[in-house]
Amino acid sequence: MTATTRTRRLAKHAALVAFGLLLLYPLIWMLSSSFKPTELIFSDSSLWPREFTLSNYTDGWNALRIPFSTFFWNSFVVAIGSIVGNLVACSLAAYAFARLNFTLRRMWFAIMLATIMLPQHVVLIPQYILFSELNWIDTFLPLVVPKFLATDAFFIFLMVQFIRTLPRELDDAAKIDGCGWWGIYWRVIMPLTMPALATTAIFTFIWTWNDFLSPLIYLSTPENYTVPLALRAFMDAEGESSWGPLFAMSILSLGPIFGFFLAAQKYLVRGVATTGLK
Amino acid sequence: MSAVATRGRVDSPPERPRRTGGRRFRISENVAGYLFLSPWLVGLFVIVIGPMIASLYLSFTEYNPLTTPTWIGLDNYVRLFSDDPRYIASLKVTLVYVVVSVPLQLAFALFLAMVLDKGLRGLSFYRSVYYLPSLLGSSVAIAILWRRVFSGDGLVNSFLGVFGVEGRSWISEPATAVYTLVALSVWTFGAPMVIFLAGLRQIPDMYYEAAAVDGAGRVRRFFAITVPLLTPVIFFNLILQMIGAFQAFTPAFVVSDGTGGPVDSTLFYTLYLYQEGFASFRMGYASAMAWVLFVVIALFTALNFAGSKYWVFYGDER
């Protein structure tokens, strides 16, 4: 390798690193600010806090009448429920679409694809009326139950695409060995669909963890707030006065997503590349 | 495990009659298909199609949760377009947001996908880092951060101050507020970038080699090979991001405290819909808004599909 290609390569790396830092700068700044005393956040512009404090975290955790542990717990319950719902319901439908021959299959499949495009807002109000008739307002049920009915059709599509790549000979072999439809689904297809299931679980987690609109509509008492609602209530209550604790709680709220990102990059990137999930 | 064990003896004669004459009840494929589909079918009718019909009906009524709906014909729709300046404002803000943010975001995504495609070690690391904002972008925490970044004494202005440029309070000025949200959308270019990268990998190297032999420079190769062969992916991203942009909600809500201010300059369509439906409880009116949004998105998508035959090139075309 000649010296010039090497310098060019180095220059490219330098540019990419610089751009990455620019991109993540707001996040890094928020992280560093969360360790500064509030009065220093806007006067001390260095990224490394001159005065290091954890009080933002302890103050923020108990800033509302209810500690943030409650909100984190609520968010986790909703997220886990949604993950289970999506995995079960979407995989059942995906298996049917990808492997079984039934009347009107093409029509149902087209309808399924169409629902992916449907703006959530068209059904928002009647859904609210429906759930309030069922007395489900201010519970987690409106957030979780639809997942058990496979309303996140995106994931059906993702799994159908994946199952179609599996050789049909496996199904035939299982049939010869005495497996019924359920056996093929449960013993053959599901174990092999693990990568798509992982992608589904991760994206369901991230979407429900970030979701703001549905909790905003359905959850009213602070005891039931999820983390995004709590952050918003925090901002409303304390306003511009306590950026330190607000940043600290914001950082904590991003923690689980960041953790998933680190642990499962390859599933994330593959999922995006095959279906265009965000 | 038992499956593997029996497979070994698959052609041993005594097995066969037992299996074909098995007493085990087998349901037909048709019934099985519908059984597997049943959760989704229930959801489709109860959570999607039923509510769609209901919201279409409600859009012709005056309705709040305490009363029964009264039929008022097209009044809601007429009022939207003739007697509601806030609605027109929200429509304009949303269109500006869609028309500005989607092309900008896609341009960024395509440019960086080209940069990160190949030729350097460690590119997958950069891909991951650049992708990260896409996962965080719709969260309340980032919207809170954005308020700080673009406020009068925020990060952007201290950065501009280094160059001696006097900044302003981007968030609280009506002229610039929506562009802070555009910036947030551009910041999340990582998701379309990853889709572009997958598309770039489908383009065979030999095309580039042949063009290079013919003396085509970098720019020429980009416009003569990459862009035409990537048009299906560009189209896919365009549709996806456009539909998403029409429905943006959280950042506008958090940045403006749910008001859509200053002076309705961040009053996104969905935000106004939320205010009407769930703050003022004019649910008939909000349903009419929802249906107009649906039609607008469908129209934009249809227009894109109609236009696509002039610029989208599928490899199998003759």
From TrEMBL, chain A:
Membrane topology category: Multi-pass membrane protein
Positions of transmembrane segments: 12-31, 71-97, 109-131, 143-163, 184-209, 243-264
Entry keyword rRNA-binding: no
CDD domains the record matches: TM_PBP2 (cd06261)
ABC transmembrane type-1 domain mapped to chain residues: 72-264
Pfam families registered for this protein in UniProt: BPD_transp_1
Keywords: Cell membrane, Membrane, Transmembrane, Transmembrane helix, Transport
Family matches, as InterPro entries: MetI-like (IPR000515), MetI-like_sf (IPR035906)
Key word Transport present: yes
SUPFAM superfamilies: MetI-like
One Gene Ontology term from the biological process aspect of the record: transmembrane transport
Entry GO CC: plasma membrane
UniProt subcellular location: Cell membrane
UniProt family annotation: Belongs to the binding-protein-dependent transport system permease family.
Protein name in UniProt: Carbohydrate ABC transporter permease
UniProtKB/TrEMBL annotation, chain B:
Protein's cellular compartments: Cell membrane
One Pfam family recorded for the sequence: BPD_transp_1
InterPro entries, per the entry: ABC_transporter_permease, MetI-like, MetI-like_sf
Transmembrane spans: 33-58, 95-116, 128-146, 177-200, 221-243, 288-312
Any one Gene Ontology cellular component term annotated for this protein: plasma membrane
Domain ABC transmembrane type-1 per the UniProt entry, residue ranges: 91-304
GO BP: any one term: transmembrane transport
Primary localisation category: membrane
Membrane topology: Multi-pass membrane protein
Residue ranges of the region described as Disordered: 1-21
Basic and acidic residues biased stretches: 8-18
Alphabetical list of CDD domains matching this protein: TM_PBP2
Protein keywords: Cell membrane, Membrane, Transmembrane, Transmembrane helix, Transport
Family annotation (PANTHER family): ABC TRANSPORTER PERMEASE PROTEIN, ABC TRANSPORTER PERMEASE PROTEIN YESP-RELATED
Family: Belongs to the binding-protein-dependent transport system permease family.
Full protein name: Sugar ABC transporter permease
